[in-house]
Amino acid sequence: MGCIVEADDGDDVVMEPPSNFSMVDEGIYRSSCPRPANFSFIETLNLRSIIYLCPEPYPEENMEFIRSHNITLFQFGIEGKTEPSVSTLKDAIRGALKILIDVRNHPVLIHCKRGKHRTGSLVGCLRKLQNWCLSSVYEEYQHFAGIKSRPTDMRFIETFDVVCLRQCLHSLIFQYQGYGSKKRRLLYKEENVQKSRIASV
Amino acid sequence: MGCIVEADDGDDVVMEPPSNFSMVDEGIYRSSCPRPANFSFIETLNLRSIIYLCPEPYPEENMEFIRSHNITLFQFGIEGKTEPSVSTLKDAIRGALKILIDVRNHPVLIHCKRGKHRTGSLVGCLRKLQNWCLSSVYEEYQHFAGIKSRPTDMRFIETFDVVCLRQCLHSLIFQYQGYGSKKRRLLYKEENVQKSRIASV
């Protein structure tokens, strides 16, 4: 492999990121399902949570890893082989998005099995929430899905209603940070939570 | 395009990232050469600097943009059409890496023309510096270069000597942050600069 690089501290850890790994935004990562060989790399991300998009139980080795690293698992089961109904998919993606943009869960890793379709759909919807134009959202989706790109995923992303979700989130506990600089990052604001708690009593 | 999403502040800015845009690591981005249509998106990154890897003069519109946003341009001219000699390429990549990992220059955007070969080679060498195994480095390179992947770039990345560069940087002004957590991020440390300044007198 030719991939042994000597570390300065005498600790020769070669980092093997999971395939389809990438940084999505500050505190947000995406990948395929990490295997044990990837754990030493995953450790460097100092994750607080994982969003897992498959309906299958979380693999035992991964479960041990997250337990020992105090990582919270959020599971939103989306079928990978048979096509889920649009409304099931919508509910799962909406739920996952709420966890994803809550900075209290960061750093967070999103993964399904191969990091292509389910992960790509969630990231696509996040990009819409960040006001990316659709052609850029598609380009990113296709980067990761490659020749396996699915028109159904792309249609789902296109029709996913972020305006409604944004208003909903906005009125609850989130607020855009840095309006002035046009930064679209979502930031948790304590006072708003208080308000919504009072409102929901 | 179906990409108009109403922003909450009544400011309907649709973000159009440059093609091949991605976040490489905290404070480090990559893309193709930004066009004016991409400027409102680029603004959201709050860049401090740009690493430009082409020998051609920086496009006039881009120059105006970076001037008005107080962004520093670091140019390392690498030929795109004819193959540069390995030693020329090495010098350029080494120089660019030194700028790239200096957090005083972050947030930084790396770009060439299409964000495939020159940008991909620089990011590939950065990944080696971060101890990524070669197969993961190649996977990332190929994500962006696609069918245009060049074996010469991949050979260059494989043979690029990061051990020497790491020691050189390490002895100057940089130091790995978070050894304990195995985090490979490079951090600028003021006291080391002082030492190196004294040492070089």
From TrEMBL, chains A, B:
Pfam families: Y_phosphatase2 (PF03162). Residues 20-185 form the Tyrosine-protein phosphatase domain. Keywords: Hydrolase. It is an enzyme of class 3 (hydrolase). PROSITE patterns: TYR_PHOSPHATASE_1, TYR_PHOSPHATASE_DUAL. It catalyses: 3,5-bis(diphospho)-1D-myo-inositol 1,2,4,6-tetrakisphosphate + H2O = 3-diphospho-1D-myo-inositol 1,2,4,5,6-pentakisphosphate + phosphate + 2 H(+); 1,5-bis(diphospho)-1D-myo-inositol 2,3,4,6-tetrakisphosphate + H2O = 1-diphospho-1D-myo-inositol 2,3,4,5,6-pentakisphosphate + phosphate + 2 H(+); 6-diphospho-1D-myo-inositol pentakisphosphate + H2O = 1D-myo-inositol hexakisphosphate + phosphate + H(+); 5-diphospho-1D-myo-inositol 1,2,3,4,6-pentakisphosphate + H2O = 1D-myo-inositol hexakisphosphate + phosphate + H(+). Its EC number is 3.6.1.52. Belongs to the protein-tyrosine phosphatase family. Atypical dual-specificity phosphatase Siw14-like subfamily. This is diphosphoinositol-polyphosphate diphosphatase. It comes from Hibiscus sabdariffa.
